[in-house]
Design a protein that fits this description.
The strands form two sheets. The chain has a two-stranded antiparallel sheet with strand order 1-2. By secondary structure, the chain is mostly helical. α3 runs antiparallel to α9, α6 packs across α12 and α8 crosses α9.
């Protein structure tokens, strides 16, 4: 029988290695959701948007293939809950979208920028983590619970689309899973591949494929390697090495908060490095290695007090919004969507809406100042 503590160490170590690769890939391909949406709004360039959509399609197909093979069960993750917190997903997603736009990127992007020497990102991440922890367990938790989570739908089944389709059509769970993933991913791939310029962009293609594969491998690590059919301590099913005690893949808002908690309470024997915390450290380290290897590392700080205020506000909005939405641009935008969860689609709509509205407002403000 596997030792849970030893298995948790394996899970965290694997997370660090995968995140190291993720940080390198994100640095090399300039993978960034906010940047992708900004490119579309300001220049009409959809290259990075297609790269992001390619990552979603690859993660979706790979994750649900593993589900179909019986290797993992994503319905046991937080994304598979039978209570749909639609208001929390939508409002939280919009706030996160606003925050990542004024903070020059989401949590993952700021980890990459931090690895390259950007001290503004360090401030953003500290603020994000603090407010996220306040929203999880602190003074902002009642706001989240009583103002947003009360607006929900109690479903009779998991909110994963394959489970809903299986119950409605009579298809087996495996067939419904593969059908949903294939149809949605194929539609995304058709849109991505129809652009000839994107087809001639190996950097974007590789970036999208690798990010999608790394997210799927994250599910395999926590949902298969870290799975115990019977924990020797509790004699119950367990997923070790994760903060949620459920299968997870890459997400960064909650893990940044838990990472701050671990740093502050390091001698607390009940706390340990988890998949999420190791992922946070790994992404920043991967970006650092890339920046040094490419000789691109340079220190960068704030240019003014207003610049500092803007990034603090952005970090705070991402911390609160990310917890309410149960994920960020990676955690919901790719990891969540790979499970085909309804909440992840709602969050993605909120994220994109908040980001695009803020970009347009910033453009209008600049034009007004120039006039």
């Amino acid at each position: 029988m596997d030792n849970p503590q030893h298995l948790a160490t394996i899970v965290a170590s694997a997370a660090f290695v995968l995140a190291l690769a993720l940080g390198w890939v994100a640095s090399h391909s300039h993978f960034c959701t906010m940047g992708a949406l900004s490119d579309v709004v300001t220049m009409g360039d959809r290259g990075r948007l297609r790269m992001m959509l390619l990552a979603i399609a690859v993660a979706m197909m790979a994750t649900n293939l593993m589900v179909g093979l019986g290797w993992i069960d994503v319905s046991k993750s937080l994304y598979g809950a039978d209570r749909l917190l639609w208001a929390s997903h939508l409002v939280g997603g919009m706030l996160f979208g606003v925050g990542m736009t004024i903070a020059s990127g989401c949590g993952a992007r700021n980890l990459v920028r931090l690895g390259g020497g950007n001290l503004k990102s360090l401030v953003v991440l500290m603020c994000l983590g603090l407010v996220a922890y306040m929203t999880l367990r602190g003074v902002l938790a009642p706001v989240r619970v009583h103002a947003l989570e009360v607006w929900s739908l109690d479903l009779d089944r998991s909110q994963l689309l394959p489970r809903i389709l299986a119950d409605a059509s009579g298809l087996s769970s495996i067939h419904a899973t593969l059908l949903c993933a294939t149809v949605i991913a194929a539609g995304i791939l058709v849109y991505v591949a129809k652009d000839s310029e994107f087809r001639r962009s190996p950097q974007y293609i590789a970036g999208g494929v690798l990010v999608g594969v790394l997210v799927a491998l994250g599910w395999y690590v926590t949902g298969h390697i870290g799975y115990l059919a019977e924990d020797p301590n509790t004699l119950e099913e367990a997923f070790v090495g994760t903060n949620t005690r459920r299968p997870e893949s890459f997400t960064f808002v909650g893990p940044i908060a838990y990472g701050l908690e671990l740093a502050l309470l390091w001698t607390d024997a009940s706390l340990r490095v988890t998949f999420g915390i190791a992922g946070v450290v790994g992404v920043a380290t991967g970006a650092l290695v890339y920046a040094i290897f490419k000789r691109q590392f340079r220190w960068e700080g704030f240019t003014s007090a207003s610049d500092l205020r803007q990034h603090l506000l952005g970090g705070a909005l991402m911390g609160f919004g990310g917890v309410c939405a149960m994920g960020c641009t990676i955690g919901q935008g790719i990891t969540g969507l790979s499970t085909l969860a309804l909440g992840s689609f709602i969050t993605w709509i909120g994220l994109a809406t908040g980001c695009v509205m803020t970009i347009k407002w910033m453009m209008w403000r600049l034009e007004a100042q120039a006039a």
